[in-house]
Amino acid sequence: MEVILMKELLEANDKLAEENRAYFSSRHVLAVNLMGSPGSGKTTLISAVARELGEIPVGAIEGDIASSIDAENLEKQGLHSAQINTCGECHLDSRVIRDGAEQIDMKNGIVFIENVGNLICPAEFDLGENVRLLAASVPEGDDKPFKYVPMFSYADAVALTKCDLMEAVGFDRANFFKGLRAVSQAPVFEVSLKKGQKTQGIKGVANYLRKKYESLK
Ligand SMILES: Nc1nc2c(ncn2[C@@H]2O[C@H](COP(=O)(O)OP(=O)(O)OP(=O)(O)O)[C@@H](O)[C@H]2O)c(=O)[nH]1
Ligand SMILES: [Mg+2]
Questions:
Q1: What is the pTM of this model?
Q2: CATH value of 2-214 in 3.60.15.10, 3.40.50.300, 3.40.190.10, 3.90.1150.10
């Protein structure tokens, strides 16, 4: 019985995801579903990419189980942001994305959808995005692509965040790539965005998204 309910839930979600895709497309908006563990550096990445993109307007739909901290921080930087609280749910679904998109009301630009911090459930829910970006942070460990295969194979691109911590945590970069390449050929952007230090690698993420945006019809 539960299996049937889950199937129905996912089918309903996928139908709304197609409607979201049409909505974003009609507004010439590139939607980026940004996934990753809690604290992997998702909001920091959005903030840094927005600065780097410069002329391209950037908005954010922020998903969290509680609080509006992330949306408030991005608003301070001048990004149109909407906060969605899932009230305990461990992922965003298509239904809530439309509400968030209507709140920020963007035309022409890139909208980040920061998913709830979780390496498992978000990989089951299409939100109507154009790009699936995974923030995998160095302190989580180099073995994560071996252990969270659905998420690492779902992502179109991977931002390997907090690379400044590689030495401190003994991150085995070759092992990370071994695990990732067993399940995915996604491009990897290695970034360091430590507060108070010169950022590294953010241009790679920004250029990747700029190209995707420019190739929208
Ligand atoms: N050293 C280092 N710290 C970073 C880097 N990027 C982010 N951080 C720090 O990591 C912490 C979490 O960053 P966030 O951007 O809030 O992470 P998040 O994934 O949005 O977190 P949630 O939304 O709570 O899941 C903050 O203290 C950041 O300053 C980085 O490249 N290097
Ligand atoms: Mg965040």
A1: 0.96
A2: 3.40.50.300
